[in-house]
Amino acid sequence: MGFWKEESCQQHEGNCETMSATKVSLPPKENAHFKRILKCYEKKHYKIGLKLCNKILNEPAFSDHAETLAMKGLILNAMGRREEAYADVRRGLKKDLRSHTCWHVYGLLQRSERKYEEAIKAYRNALKHDPNNIQILRELSIVQIHIRDLRGYRDTRHQLFNLKPAQRASWIGFAMAYHLLNDYDTAYKILEAFRKTQNPRDGPVYDYENSELLLYQNTILEDSGDLESAVKHLIENSSYICDKTTYSETLANLYLHTGKSKLGEQIYRKLINANPDNYAYYQGLEKALAVEDNPREKVILYSSFSKDKKKVCLPNRMILEYTEGEAFLEHLRPYMESALTKGAPPLFTDLRPLYTDSNKVITIQKLVESMVIQLRDYSRYFEDQEVKSAPASALLWAYYYLAQHYDHLGNHETAMSYVDKAIDHTPTLIELFMCKAKIYKHTGDLASAAKWMDEARELDTADRYINSKCAKYFLQANDIEQATTVCGKFTREGATPLDNLNEMQCMWFQTECALAYQRTGQWGESLKKCHEVDRHFNEIIDDQYDFHTYCLRKMTLRSYVQLLRLEDVLRSHPFYFKAAKCAISVYLHLYDHPLKNQSKDEQISTDNMSPADLKKMKNKQRKARKKLEVEQQAAAAAAEKKEHHLKSKQNASEDGDNHPPPSEELLPEKLSSTQDPLKEAIKFLQPLQSFAYDKIDTHLLAYEIYSRKNKPLLMLQSVKRALKIDDRHPKLHQFLSNFQEYITSRISSLPDPLPEFLQSEMAKIYTAKVFQDIKDINWDSIESKTLFSKHRGDDSSITALSDLKLGDSPSN
Predict the structure, then answer these.
(1) Residue 424 phi, psi (nearest 5)
(2) Where does residue 685 fall: left (phi above 0), alpha (psi -120 to 50 degrees), or beta otherwise?
(3) Which terminus has fewer CB within 10 Å in the chain: N or C?
(4) Span 261-310, pLDDT tens digits
(5) Burial of 621 (0-12, 13-18, 19+ CB in 10 A)
(6) Which residues lie within the region annotated Disordered (predicted)?
(7) Which residues, in sequence order, are CB contacts of 270 under 8 Å at separation 6+?
(8) Which of 11-15, 493-497, 798-802 has the lowest mean pLDDT?
């Protein structure tokens, strides 16, 4: 927890408030012991502090001393003995409910358990008895910003500001509270008043913290919409801003939005000269020159840069975006020649955005195929060049490009022939084996894809990226054991690969592993991986706690605001969406197909068994029991080893007392045998409804859950939200048909005023023609004729109908 140490480190915020103000005053000897207890806690000398606590409490006159009991509980909590800690702290509170020290410690314990609301209540109780305690106010403000109680945070920072107006952190925290509440004017005025209290310095001085403060102040002006003042503020303080790149980028952007395009153009040209590979600078220059919608002017602009900077690829690449026909071919020829000469593996990835134009695709294909002929027969790129003017590797990269080209177009047979030619040319190039694996993957042969990716891995066993890619391919082929073995080559020794990958928050592996378990029917294991991903996001959110004081101290204010905004939408990340979608699908399956009670099914009647069969059965049962005992012993040893590792890690940590309590172990059997799968599914659905509201899958999953719970209003809500996102989605049409049948069959049994309301809302959705078209679709036929590959986890009907319009029939 490190609470007092954190405060003692913040010298600029003032000295720590002591917590030894007790009603029952201790004699000098015991009081000296109590002061030593505080110091021992700060220095993490927990055993010595515990001995001192016991020494005071062993005295009959002070056996119920409230503050000593509270400190003993705090030290025990830091040592991981949480139950004893709570018992002592509660005992101390019972002895003196008016002790701010006891309430403070109780708040610290609640905070360590991630019970932030309870921690706030405890801190407020402490402040009732000591309203000006700086340390408690700081703790309260940190918890408030952590749970985004912004109004409470503002009030607490205001109180801290009144108590410590000479400290910089008081001003900064107070201003930031108003900024987060979108009261930009007040936030700016507070920072401006703070700057006036500082000693002015003559001339430009390298002061990073002051520079960051000025940039943050400018951010507030920009957020408020007062761009003219933001420009003026930047220019006036330009000599004090150390980050000149950020200064130029911000000023150029402000010039664009205030109509001063000429000034913006000048700055963007300087930025391009400094970093000619930054595409954002070119975009800014396009806006400054007002040529965003004029392809011809863009070509002229980028051509001027390509002449000045021949080694820079970006201007030459952007010309290809805005040219067509002969002009496109004229610029494509030197670009391809340069890339093949240098041997650029990502050439196809670079040009793939051009494949939205079918004419450009044909031009690229003809050009590269003609280059292959010339390279193969004459070692040159074009007929007008000298023989053997191209390097020998150019043909290899041309083959590689065509393999990716045809694979992208879906012509896998031709793609395979080109990659085989490339492998015959240079059988040691890793990219070729990866390309072949990708082609097999696109054909649906995931086992062969994994085999060839493993071949690529063995060419360079020290490459972590290839190793990870290989593991992913094995997971997609449902070979979980082999994927774990491959990942184990880069995990920590002494720990199982799965445990170490979970500890490192390797979420790409866990999401793919969850899907593999789902495809193989291992529902409990799949849910375990999904819950592990969910816990990672909880840990990431909790990890921001330490930054609430650090960023104010180090003046990384702009980054801190970005961090807060990121954390607010953290669960919108694709990793969480993927894991949540998998978990919901598994829970829906478990609801529809509950797992049988194996213990009852496995009970065998021995009445009619012969002696020989009975003996065989007993031998088999004995072996099974022995095997189970061995597995249990191995599991216990692994758990003990893991616990020892966690304890050693906690003892070695600089902030060993700031660890949350260990989470409940995730047991696959327990997860898959839940009594209420829909309740568990909703726990994953709710974050999606908040942070993945724009994804139609969120609302389709919601419909599936609520339809099983017989919630017509929530079913209606789900289909209405889905219609706003994609009213042509095939599975949505299926749900609309099901929903209409559901309401028709149950509307008479619904209580008033539900029937009338549902009919009026459904009338807005179901026109006569739309409903008839939906009704004519033969869903069973579609699902039976267009099944996905068994390795795909998506619903078959979704892809089968991706291009199907209402009233159309799927092709045979």
Answers:
(1) -65, -35
(2) alpha
(3) C
(4) 999 999 999 999 999 999 999 999 999 999 989 999 999 999 988 776 66
(5) exposed
(6) 599-672
(7) 248
(8) 798-802
